[in-house]
Amino acid sequence: MDAAVPLAGAHDTHHHGPPEANRSSRVDPQLLGMLLFIISEIMVFAAFFTAYFFIRIVGENEWPARGTELPVLVAGVNTAILLSSSLTLHWAQTSVKNGNRFGLKAGMFTTFLLGATFLLVQVNEYVHIGFSPADHAQGSVFYGLTGLHGAHVFIGLLLLGVVTVRSFRGHFSKEEHRGLEIPGIYWHFVDVMWIVVYTTIYII
Prior knowledge:
By secondary structure, this protein is mainly α. It has a domain at about 70-204: Up-down Bundle (Four Helix Bundle (Hemerythrin (Met), subunit A)), CATH 1.20.120. It is about 70% helix and about 0% strand. The protein has helices at about 30-60, 70-95, 100-130, 135-170, 180-204. The longest helix is centred in the last third of the chain and has 32 residues, at about 135-170.
């Protein structure tokens, strides 16, 4: 009777250890993480915009405050610079998918330069604008919103810098370029958000 007992493990197909993780979503984890992060950042900007319109419409503050003439033309040119960086980034992304390494490197380098130019122009505007956040409510929301966006541009430049260096080192290919796409999504978000900030602060 003992011979009828099969050897332990001879036909054992039972799965040992913890079960495999259930991945019901087909969205790439890195992409999903970036999208969730962007959603949280939109909420942060929404809070600042709420404060802006509350102070401007509901609050009993002089608007526009005295001595707060904003450089609309300079900011408009700066807006064009930032939007151009989205085009050069798209050029880099398209180039890597087509195996064009020159387009990848040139596109990323140009995108980084345009983003850095935007940030430098913004800093120069702060230096010469003529009022501070402590002068009045308009100054507070102006520096708050543009400064918040400027911080996002700075973070985006750090990411672009890393991607640019990797591009020149040959780290991306037609098959593998996720390290370029994820920071690219963030940079496009920064560009779109600036259009909202510029329209709200400088135009309306």
